[in-house]
Design brief:
Blueprint: H1 11-32, H2 36-48, H3 50-60, H4 65-88, E1 90-91, E2 94-95, H5 99-123, H6 131-151, H7 156-195
Antiparallel strand pairs: 1-2
Helix pairs in contact: 1-2, 1-3, 1-4, 2-6, 3-4, 4-5, 4-6, 5-7, 6-7
């Protein structure tokens, strides 16, 4: 293990924890305050800080095993919360997010979560995030808040956000599923190697 890899109290880890706490605030704003625009802006802030923790970890020499696990947890938690809440919350009797996006993302997350837990339990290992997975997350972090903003108003500008969200969401979902297939292949190989 690299020197300092077991550190907990680092600036990047604090940022990841803040992103996780931000998810609770997002859910409160959307489901309790019914502030769709505020929730969308907060979700965009959570998503836009996704790269900062990793960048600072490398720049400051504060990479850690906890940080490697926290970053994808913060990503998944924010995305799943935004998708589930977007399926529950309604504007003018319609769910904020389209059903195809909700079902696709939840199914992908469920399959990947189970696979990663099996890998962790049997080998003690986790998978490392690939850059293409970060691209999918980036697209989805842009798509979901755009769909929120598109649902928040009937003004002309709202339709621009809606269409941008649908295009980015479709592309992000396709890449997300493609990356998941690669991760599942890697997990299968590691499990086979562990059993051998």
């Amino acid at each position: 293990m690299r020197e300092g890899a077991d550190r907990v109290l680092t600036i990047p880890n604090a940022i990841s924890f803040a992103r996780i706490l931000g998810v609770g605030w997002f859910l409160w704003m959307l489901l309790v305050d019914e502030n769709v625009v505020g929730a969308a802006v907060l979700l965009l802030a959570i998503g836009s800080t996704d790269w900062i923790d990793g960048y600072l970890a490398r720049r400051l020499g504060q990479e850690s095993e906890l940080g490697r696990k926290l970053d994808p947890v913060a990503d998944r938690l924010a995305l799943v919360a935004a998708v589930v809440a977007g399926a529950i919350a309604q504007v003018d009797g319609e769910a904020i997010l389209p059903l195809w996006l909700v079902v696709g993302l939840i199914a992908r997350e469920a399959v990947m979560s189970i696979a990663v837990l099996v890998l962790l339990r049997r080998t003690g290992e986790s998978i490392h995030v690939r850059w293409i997975g970060k691209l999918a997350t980036f697209l989805l972090y842009g798509a979901v808040p755009s769909l929120y903003l598109g649902a928040a108003s009937t003004a002309e500008w709202a339709s621009v956000f809606r269409w941008a969200g649908l295009v980015a969401g479709g592309a992000g979902l396709v890449i997300y599923v493609w990356v998941a297939i690669g991760y599942l292949g890697e997990i299968r190989e590691r499990l086979a190697a562990a059993e051998a």
